[in-house]
Specification:
single chain, 639 residues, alpha+beta, Immunoglobulin-like, TIM Barrel, 15 helices, 26% strand
Length: 639
């Protein structure tokens, strides 16, 4: 029966509607069977975690769907009233034998496979509708690691330097760690970037086209990265004070820019007002006494005098997020952390390590955020497909309408880097992105935080320039390594191609500070270098300004429907379409060869096309030639 069964979850005939489905809606599923036998029964096997297995007998239908040889079986289901994930495959019993038809071996959805045993299931995400505010949905995001962006003081002195810190004497130094024999950091290094520096660079960000700033943590902490929170209610003195943040939020709004803060709520710092391991705060900390008001926030082992900490790092003691007093402090009280900073001007939060946070915590925090400002946004740090992420043995719920508005789209980054660097072809890239499209509710897919760089991964230009893999280098070699001239030329061409995909793809493009001017660097700390003011690569900067301007100029790139084009090999492409216009986006990742093809081989769209990158008018059914590492965006008016 291997070739005698067929189902394609991407075709509406076989699965209607496509993709994720709202609660309480009907779904029709069909299976085609090639057989002359009259002794055939077909069943739809459903699974939902809370209810388990359901077996539904499918009925033969007279529908032939342009194939008179096939027998079609049809099943009808209604999605539950509460959000969940449904899984399905088909069971066929013929002449005493049992066959299964399920997802393909890569589990990418679409055309499946016949199996002799229980197969991988197809996924249906069942969700509740939620609204994403337009300021976010139409935005361009910029991530800032504050210490490394700009020092706004006129004399460039370091604002309130910390004890036992290393202060770089030259803004253009490379970051470094000073560690002891146990690999613990002995001295944190600082460059002196602060919130006043961001205020002074708002005109730059406005000119670049930025409408959203996502700030790495800015609350008081011992480190330069601030993920070891010392005081949630206080701006780190090296960055300024609470009033400076309020000024930043007000002035950013005047430039049409919204601020999103990094919420680090799964752990605090050991050197904090709450834990106070080193006695640097006057409050009685949880580490010091079980009489501390914060004691129940943490997990202590009295026998060993130890405590649970994030990934075994004792500077980051884990909190009990379900402790009522902790929830009161973080988001329930009128003057809670979340509400306080939103009243000070923040328009949303990015939740650090969202998979470390209990589902109930995220849902209730969301409610507090939306009650404070219905037009706010909640983003979660998730590195995998957020619709079916398994964390600590549990299927997580992030995108079912009651949790996150958006997630960090690391799968987008992984897929497109794999395509650009040649480990997968254009067809595979399209299939993997289509899988996300199928699994994510539309409201979330079109608002994912699409990053190609961040503080947690090597600089994208370093990767695209084919630098040696970092595990091959010592810390000293990574600190000093820079692409040579040929590598940098290659990296820049690839960066332009990748950023063009990013700016035309569904979701919110996020630019990691300095990527738009060609910064290089391996993983932390080298990816967190200071922004090279006065030494920017003006060619790359001009490119980013151009493609951001194009994204904002044409609404099809923010609200247009999306689907991949039927291309393969070195070509990758997709189509965007709304009522006003259609955009054909096609890319050649080959670094040596041009590719020529006819437009009508990849799209049925007709009309007068305009190459909007080069401002050229092109006739119908024309021949397209893409040079090595070139992308083309063709726009045609609808109607």
């Amino acid at each position: 029966m291997k070739d005698l069964l067929f189902h394609d979850s991407h075709q509406l005939f076989y699965r209607n509607p496509f993709g994720a489905v709202l609660c309480g809606h009907k779904i029709i599923l069909r299976l085609k069977v090639y057989s002359n036998s009259k002794n055939i029964d077909c069943y739809l096997r459903l699974w939902e975690n809370s209810t388990g297995e359901t077996l539904i007998k499918m009925e033969k239908t007279n529908e032939r769907h342009q194939d008179p040889r096939g027998i079609f079986f049809e099943g009808e289901i209604f999605t539950p009233q509460e959000p969940c994930i449904l899984w399905y495959f088909f069971v066929v019993r013929k002449d005493g034998n049992t066959y299964y038809y399920g997802n393909n071996s890569k589990e990418l959805g679409g055309i499946g496979e016949t199996w002799s045993k229980q197969p991988p299931s197809y996924q249906i995400t069942v969700y509740k509708e939620s609204k994403i505010p337009p300021w976010f949905k139409n935005g361009i995001m910029y991530q800032i690691f504050v210490d490394r962006f700009f020092n706004g003081l006129e004399d460039k002195k370091i604002l309130n330097p910390k004890k036992k810190s290393l202060i770089h004497g030259d803004w253009y130094d490379t970051p470094l760690y000073i560690k002891d024999s146990e690999n613990r950091i002995r001295r944190w290094d600082f460059f002196g970037g602060n919130l006043l520096g961001i205020i002074k660079k708002l005109p730059y960000l406005k000119e670049l086209g930025i409408t959203i700033i996502y700030l790495n943590p800015i609350f008081e902490a011992a480190s330069n990265h601030k993920y070891d929170t010392g005081n949630y209610k206080k701006i780190d003195p090296m960055f300024g004070d609470n009033e400076t943040f309020q000024e930043l939020a007000i002035k950013a709004r005047e430039y049409g820019i919204s601020i999103i803060l990094d919420g680090v709520f799964s752990h605090t710092g050991s050197d904090s007002i709450y834990f106070n391991k080193y006695g640097n705060y006057s409050d009685l900390g949880a580490y010091q006494s079980d009489k501390s008001p914060y004691y129940n926030w943490y997990h202590f082992n009295k026998e060993s005098a130890g405590y649970l900490c994030w990934w075994g790092i004792d500077d980051l003691p884990n909190v009990n997020e379900l402790e009522p007093s902790y929830q009161d402090f973080i988001f329930k009280d009128k003057d809670s952390v979340v509400k306080y900073w939103m009243k000070m001007g923040a328009r949303g939060w990015r939740l650090d390590v969202a998979d470390e946070l209990p589902a109930e915590f995220i849902k209730e925090l969301r409610n507090a955020v939306k009650e404070t400002d219905p037009n706010s946004i909640l983003i979660g740090e998730v590195w995998e497909d957020a619709s079916n992420k398994i964390s600590y043995g549990q299927l997580r719920q992030y995108l079912l309408g009651e949790e996150l508005d958006s997630v960090t789209n690391y799968p987008f980054r992984r897929i497109l880097l794999s395509y650009i660097l040649g480990s997968i072809d254009g067809s595979e890239a399209g299939s993997e992105l289509l899988q996300l499209f199928e699994n994510y509710p539309p409201q979330n897919f079109y608002c994912t935080m699409n990053l190609i760089g961040s503080h947690d991964v090597p600089r994208v230009l370093t990767l695209l320039g084919e630098a040696p893999e970092e595990h091959q280098l010592s810390d000293g070699e990574k600190e000093e390594y820079r692409l040579n001239e040929e590598q940098r030329k290659l990296g820049i061409k690839r960066l332009k191609l990748l950023s063009l995909i990013q700016m035309t793809f569904p979701g919110i493009p996020c630019v990691y500070y300095g990527d738009e001017v060609g910064m290089e660097g391996y993983s932390d700390p080298y990816n967190r270098g200071p922004y090279p003011w006065g030494r920017e690569d003006q060619d790359i900067l001009a490119w980013y300004k151009k493609i951001i301007r194009l994204r904002k100029q044409y609404s099809v790139f923010t609200d247009g429907n999306w689907y991949p084009l039927n291309v393969e090999g070195d070509l990758f492409g997709f189509q965007r379409e709304n009522r006003q216009e259609t955009a054909i986006n096609i890319f050649n990742r080959n670094k040596e060869k041009e590719i020529t093809f006819q437009l009508d081989t990849i799209t049925r769209k007709k009309g007068i096309f305009r190459d909007i990158l080069n401002d050229k008018i092109l006739k119908e059914n024309f021949t397209i030639t893409l040079q090595p590492l070139e992308g083309m965006i063709l726009l045609v008016q609808n109607g």
